[in-house]
Amino acid sequence: MDVDAEISRTQEERRKLEEALAAGAPMAVSSVTFDTDLYGGGGADPNRFAGYDTSIPASEDDAAEDDTEAANPAPRRLAAYTGHAIAAADLPRSADDDALPKRSQRIIDREDDYRRRRLNQIISPERHDPFAAGEATPDPSVRTYADVMRDAALAKKKEDLMREIAKKKKEEEEKEKEKKAAAPEQPAATTKRRNRWDQSQDSDAAAGAKKAKTSSDWDAPDATPGIGRWDATPGRVGDATPSVRRNRWDETPTPGRMADADATPAAGGVTPGATPSGAWDATPKLPGGVTPTPGKKQRSRWDETPASMGSATPGGLGAATPAGYTPGPTPFGAENLATPTPSQIARGPMTPEQYQLMRWERDIEERNRPLTDEELDAMFPQEGYKILEPPASYQPIRTPARKLLATPTPLGTPLYAIPEENRGQQFDVPKELGGGLPLMKPEDYQYFGTLLNEEEEEQLSPEEQKERKIMKLLLKVKNGTPPQRKTALRQLTDKAREFGAGPLFNKILPLLMQPTLEDQERHLLVKVIDRVLYKLDELVRPFVHKILVVIEPLLIDEDYYARVEGREIISNLSKAAGLATMIAAMRPDIDNIDEYVRNTTARAFSVVASALGIPALLPFLKAVCQSKKSWQARHTGIKIVQQIAILMGCAVLPHLKSLVEIIEHGLSDENQKVRTITALSLAALAEAAAPYGIESFDTVLKPLWKGIRSHRGKVLAAFLKAIGFIIPLMDALYASYYTKEVMQVLIREFQSPDEEMKKIVLKVVKQCVSTEGVEADYIRNDILPDFFKHFWVRRMALDRRNYKQLVETTVEMANKVGVADIVGRVVEDLKDESEPYRRMVMETIEKVVANLGASDIDARLEELLIDGILYAFQEQTSDDANVMLNGFGAVVNALGQRVKPYLPQICGTIKWRLNNKSAKVRQQAADLISRIAIVMKQCQEEQLMGHLGVVLYEYLGEEYPEVLGSILGALKAIVNVIGMTKMTPPIKDLLPRLTPILKNRHEKVQENCIDLVGRIADRGAEFVPAREWMRICFELLEMLKAHKKGIRRATVNTFGYIAKAIGPQDVLATLLNNLKVQERQNRVCTTVAIAIVAETCSPFTVLPALMNEYRVPELNVQNGVLKSLSFLFEYIGEMGKDYIYAVTPLLEDALMDRDLVHRQTAASAVKHMALGVAGLGCEDALVHLLNYVWPNIFETSPHVINAVMEAIEGMRVALGAAVILNYCLQGLFHPARKVREVYWKIYNSLYIGAQDALVAAYPALEDDGDNIFSRPELAMFV
Amino acid sequence: MQASDRFNINSQLEHLQAKYVGTGHADLTRFEWAVNIQRDSYASYIGHYPMLAYFAIAENESIGREHYNFMQKMLLPCGLPPERDED
């Protein structure tokens, strides 16, 4: 066979090659056979491999060179330079990103490093409560305030010492270096030898320096990166935090990433992905195994292909480093063992990180398992292949680590380990828990593992039993179903004091520190704390700090609701524990060495201030802000003031003066950070107080003033911000003066390259410009030129926040100087080549024109503007935020009739774009039509509109629902403006085309379509034959199922219009038939539609058929009729007086029905009826109905009783309070408590509704001994 | 009360009712109710000026005096509360 021949030939060739290799023959690149298809054939060109590496570097040096090049790819890619990578991440993503799987729910996955520092905090042991202890000396084992303070001082000292040592070392090193530099007689050889070391050191140092440089002083370690130091809301701060925004690729869990993200920072050093063990094909080494490769500093290039490596041996790396399995805080001794056996993995509760890793690994193993012979047979064709013997030299990999990986589950026994008998052992199948407990997540074993031990509960001590009980309840709250959660939460609340604060918090708080916590779980646990706090009250005192440690991080969470929740808890906590305890708990943290702790503490303090009142905290704040001991304390104190201002807003006004006094000395503090935060606090206070309270700032004006002249950099920025917020509080005269003064500095800082400074300058300019007293001329001449020169540059459009701020500031300027100036300056930029920049220009123009109109714009500018807008509109590649569309619409609407000359051109563009291949472009074109339709009408371009109408009509076959929706919307806009008669295509052609579209289930299509159909039914029903309307009626019934309320509302209204057009009979028959359907929403909408039909066609056309339908012995139908009546009487109001006698017998029957819903619905019909006919002389019928309603007052079902009570309230309005009071009196002092309760409830609502009217109707009570109950005044007669 | 209707509209209604002083409950005594009635009555007389004028004419007092009298009567409109028998 030729296959055999071919195989033997290949084998022969290979053998030769191998021999040659073995003989040491040099392998020239040219001798190797390249694929000529790929590399181009023909050996004539000797340079054809010029661009390729001919050998793989043996040493590290060569690779290093490449590394540096790879590390700085910018020069190579410069040709395609588009903008910052960071900025690109900030730009709105296109919609296709949404198709990616949803983000993880876990809190930790969206946190940045700074926020993750919460996990470093230690839940401190409980503290002494001096209030509870009274005079007694505290037990030495309990931590008192003094202990805590001592510890804090110690930590501080240690930190100082370490810093001192580090400084000394550095100095010494420098000295050493100097010495070496002074000794030039180094032999050349050694220098060369050492060169590499030097280089690497240098590059390290350079990298360090670079780092130091790039992380400008704005994110120096002591600053709060990320969280709004400069802003009120701690949102994401793009550039202050190093790489907060994660690439979407990060969302796929790779093992390295896993460990990276999950491991507590302590374990961070040993991320599995970073194992430097080198070559990609090497067997993963077991730690502590044979020859570990001596720590190579420079990783070779091969290590840097994470993708291929990740997929080739992914789990391996993770599995092979047990350190990855045992993150710092919870080591259980595995790391000392040389070879981790798989049994070890399953032993004891796994930490959540381990579990995640394992889960993932198992998944990958499953997919990458070796193919079996059968599978291979199935894959390959029978012909042309031959199964060969494996060569004798083939050695399957038998290294233990590989084997370990090969096992699909870690529970297999690749290595022998004596299996231990362990009853509590957890297999990865979650164990069923008895007693109706919810399933445990693997992550929970650590906390709830003991619940699995099936020991006899009786054998436990009462303490242990209590603990178990708490754990069970908490597990139910955390993982249970909603009803389970509810009861568990209630039990926890009710028994809180019985359980005691200690056991409760000892169980709850560690759960909140769990690294894999999800948002929902955290919310629930926080809720538990809140409820429990309320019950425990002063018993929480010893645990205040503990609770704060876990709750404070919520205050800087990026989720708004988490922040609110955190505030609520701390506020409740401070109310329960009292000011003294709160201060005692938090005082030591105020000058903590960790900035994170200080930051959160400051925020927590501001919450305490808002809970207990600012005055209570003032003395303490004063003392802290003047602390001589440490600048940290002063810094935190002033920061508390800032946070109070941010949190409480204008509520600081009464205390403004004292707050300013407390912090003002900080402006001249010796520490720069304190000066900065003081200025920022003043800014926050001024912002909160605006527009009042300038007199409180009098004392700080001068220091601020001096400050902006003497400071530079970020202190200056802070000072400018303070001034910027104070100026708007001033009188016009002063404001103008100060603005002019500060503007010199601002204009100088326009050119600052610092991003933060830019933002602040923009903000301050905005503040100053908007202030009364700053003249337009001044702005025009002194500010605008420099402003536009420095800020209106392309780069500003790339950063989201700069962009927003710049647009806001420019709009504010336009408000002062008018449209023409601003638009005139930017209009040319509409044709700029950078799209983000064009978008920014467009947004500015849109806002300016929408605010101020276009009357200032002269003919020339108008031409330029339209031209620019058309250009920008046509050139856009993506417009997710609809900036271009809105801008176009705004400008056209503002110009009004002046657009007339340009309309043909605009319509040409629209028509051309309607025909575009891209769905988005088509959609946008249709949207634009609906925006400018009104203006087209103003310009009397009806012919053009008719033309557009025909074009749109032709596009009704559109297949993209979003686009179809927009097209329908555009048609609607045109029909609305030019009216039914002039519409082209004529309505009689248009509507039949719409009927099938009504079947479309897409929400946008439905909404626009029903709007259009409703419009036609309302205005132009006569153009369409009745048969077509009936067809539409049937389609409309389906639309009642829509989820969106707007659609359902439009549908029922359309029923009304159709009924008006073709008479109610047929429509009503359709609707009454629909009452028989099962679906509730459908029936409800039908009843509404019936009521609307009745309202539009007068009730007498509908009532007979409707009441006749009540005779159908079917629950749903009868209830539907009653509900229709209820809606009907609600809609017709006073008109009901003509129909009340007609429907009374029906309602009598319904109010006596056995079915609850009958009575409920009838009661609500009675309510509407009574309210409608109040004062129209129908009292007789109403009293009759009241007699039927009244016996229902003892109903317990919430809906029924509610309806009945409302009916009685309605009767009160129609019949007067006295009548109802007389019904009430019989039961107010009834011997049966149940009866009394109901009657008093009725009495109370009566009393609230008509307190005064009852005075005349109260019964005359007989005097009782000393007590005189009679009201003689009422008997007076003149 | 059942657990289910702790948070529904009815409980809100009762909460609302409890905010008004003059509302009652199942354990209200005859005396307490009478006091409420008396105070409401006096408040009503004072609030409606024509009523006040009418009473002033009937009693031959000035309107201001009548006003003052009614206010005073609102303090203990029915005399001291009866002794509660301990049960």
Automatic annotation (TrEMBL), chain A:
<keyword id="KW-0677">Repeat</keyword>
<dbReference type="GO" id="GO:0005689">
    <property type="term" value="C:U12-type spliceosomal complex"/>
</dbReference>
<feature type="compositionally biased region" description="Basic and acidic residues">
    <location>
        <begin position="93"/>
        <end position="115"/>
    </location>
</feature>
<dbReference type="Pfam" id="PF08920">
    <property type="entry name" value="SF3b1"/>
</dbReference>
<dbReference type="InterPro" id="IPR054573">
    <property type="entry name" value="PP2A/SF3B1-like_HEAT"/>
</dbReference>
<feature type="compositionally biased region" description="Low complexity">
    <location>
        <begin position="198"/>
        <end position="209"/>
    </location>
</feature>
<comment type="similarity">
    <text>Belongs to the phosphatase 2A regulatory subunit A family.</text>
</comment>
<feature type="region of interest" description="Disordered">
    <location>
        <begin position="168"/>
        <end position="332"/>
    </location>
</feature>
<dbReference type="GO" id="GO:0000245">
    <property type="term" value="P:spliceosomal complex assembly"/>
</dbReference>
<dbReference type="GO" id="GO:0003729">
    <property type="term" value="F:mRNA binding"/>
</dbReference>
<dbReference type="InterPro" id="IPR034085">
    <property type="entry name" value="TOG"/>
</dbReference>
<keyword id="KW-0508">mRNA splicing</keyword>
<dbReference type="InterPro" id="IPR015016">
    <property type="entry name" value="SF3b_su1"/>
</dbReference>
<protein>
    <recommendedName>
        <fullName>TOG domain-containing protein</fullName>
    </recommendedName>
</protein>
<feature type="compositionally biased region" description="Low complexity">
    <location>
        <begin position="261"/>
        <end position="279"/>
    </location>
</feature>
<feature type="repeat" description="HEAT">
    <location>
        <begin position="659"/>
        <end position="697"/>
    </location>
</feature>
<dbReference type="InterPro" id="IPR021133">
    <property type="entry name" value="HEAT_type_2"/>
</dbReference>
<feature type="compositionally biased region" description="Low complexity">
    <location>
        <begin position="319"/>
        <end position="332"/>
    </location>
</feature>
<dbReference type="Pfam" id="PF22646">
    <property type="entry name" value="PPP2R1A-like_HEAT"/>
</dbReference>
<feature type="region of interest" description="Disordered">
    <location>
        <begin position="43"/>
        <end position="74"/>
    </location>
</feature>
<dbReference type="GO" id="GO:0071013">
    <property type="term" value="C:catalytic step 2 spliceosome"/>
</dbReference>
<dbReference type="GO" id="GO:0005686">
    <property type="term" value="C:U2 snRNP"/>
</dbReference>
Automatic annotation (TrEMBL), chain B:
<comment type="similarity">
    <text>Belongs to the SF3B5 family.</text>
</comment>
<dbReference type="GO" id="GO:0005686">
    <property type="term" value="C:U2 snRNP"/>
</dbReference>
<dbReference type="InterPro" id="IPR009846">
    <property type="entry name" value="SF3b5/RDS3-10"/>
</dbReference>
<dbReference type="GO" id="GO:0071011">
    <property type="term" value="C:precatalytic spliceosome"/>
</dbReference>
<dbReference type="Pfam" id="PF07189">
    <property type="entry name" value="SF3b10"/>
</dbReference>
<dbReference type="InterPro" id="IPR017089">
    <property type="entry name" value="Splicing_factor_3B_subunit_5"/>
</dbReference>
<protein>
    <recommendedName>
        <fullName>Splicing factor subunit</fullName>
    </recommendedName>
</protein>
<dbReference type="GO" id="GO:0000398">
    <property type="term" value="P:mRNA splicing, via spliceosome"/>
</dbReference>
